[in-house]
Amino acid sequence: xxxxxxxxxxxxxxxxxxxxxxxxNNNPLANAQNLxxxxxxxxVKLLGNSISTSSLKHLLSLAQNSSRTTSDEVKDxxxxxxxxxxxxxxxxxxxxxxxxxxxxxxxNYPYENIMTxxxxxxxxxxxxxxxxYTEVLTKSEVEDDEAENEYSLTGIMLLDNKxxxxxxxxxxxxxxDEAENExxxxxxxxxxxxSNRIVMEQEHxxxxxxxxxxxxxxxxxxxILVEQTAIEFENEKKNGKEEIEYSISFxxxxxxxxxxxxxxxxxxxxxxxxxYYIDNKKGEFRIEASGDKYxxxxxxxxxxxx
Length: 306
Description:
Strand 4 (113-120) and strand 5 (126-143) form a beta hairpin. This protein has helices at residues 32-50, 53-64, 70-76, 78-88; strands at residues 3-8, 14-19, 98-103, 113-120, 126-143, 146-159, 162-175, 178-190, 193-207, 210-221, 224-238, 241-251, 257-265, 270-278, 281-290, 293-298, 303-305. The protein is globular and about 60 Å long. The protein is of the alpha+beta class. Helix content is 16%, strand content 57%.
């Protein structure tokens, strides 16, 4: 059974343990391919979920309104909660993510590489995405035992029969037994208009037995920053085992709350039990997959399907 926690700032934590080989970093996001894959998919899915004018106006109204009750506040935030949960729900399996890169032969997309990105949702169903991209080395420096390389990336990701444009920059630094990657990705739907976009900035560091990755997503509407969210992925070796944590921190005015999510699987179904804490008040709701949507069931019996 996996557990996810969400606090707001709301923080979402998904923890699991796997056996680790001595001296080997098994973090699935420890290489550049998987970093690109996770960052591109989550940015594009968040863009598709969040960029509509109505939803962005709703975010702004929530940030400005502090008179809601706790129950109403939770229901009001479900759209927002669902947007971020849906952005990463393809990577809730044991292996998180796997990618494969090959030379691109599709003349409809004039990029050098094609990346296939695979994962599993919380029901264990396979997910797959395609990214066409070209990465160019723009700077390389080597001094003693230090090396730094900078790359630029352009590409297109296909999702739900739509083309999303991707631009990115990656920096890789190595020194002795330490390595650090930084990645920035911008995703937008209109090739000629970047005013509505998601900007993701990522940093990955490895030190001894600990690996930490943070993704910060900024949502822009008409070039105005309307929301910013940090997702942190931490991998640490303890007693010969590898522990993995996923955390999401939302920033929205002065609103605060915490959501603890427990994955429950039976022979009949899989669902998420969510316990939330807002202003010292406690409540609960559940999430169940309904085809390609999620159904949220609250304590008063009401349901919201998104």
